[in-house]
């Protein structure tokens, strides 16, 4: 996720998100990619829905 991560870091910095927020967002994307074991740029809406369902049903995150 090297190039994609760099792009995301740059975009978050340009939008002036705090360092803590940037770190949290990057961790969320890393976890998403890890769940499917592939780069986020290779996934779409269906993977996002499946991952959110996993977080709600398996991890007991609130919707």
Could you explain how this protein is built, in words?
- This protein is mainly alpha-helical.
- The protein contains three helices and no strands.
- It has one domain (about 1-55).
- The chain is globular, with a radius of gyration of 13 Å.
- The model has no long low-confidence stretch (mean pLDDT about 95).
How is the secondary structure organized here?
Blueprint: H1 2-14, H2 19-36, H3 45-57
Quickly list its features.
mainly alpha; 70% helix; 3 helices; 63 residues
Short description:
By secondary structure, this protein is mainly α. The protein has 3 helices and no strands.
Percent helix among the residues?
A: 55-70%
Shape, please? globular
Q: N-to-C SSE series?
A: HHH
The percentage of residues in β strands lies in under 5%
Q: Treating each run of at least 4 consecutive H or I residues as one helix, how many helices?
A: 3
Query: Structural class of the secondary elements?
Result: mainly alpha
What is the total tally of β strands?
Answer: 0
Radius of gyration: 13 Å
User: Which consecutive residue ranges, at least 5 long each, have pLDDT under 50?
Assistant: none
Ends apart, CA distance between termini: 27 Å
The residue-averaged pLDDT reads 95
Largest sheet: none
**Tally of discrete structural domains:** 1
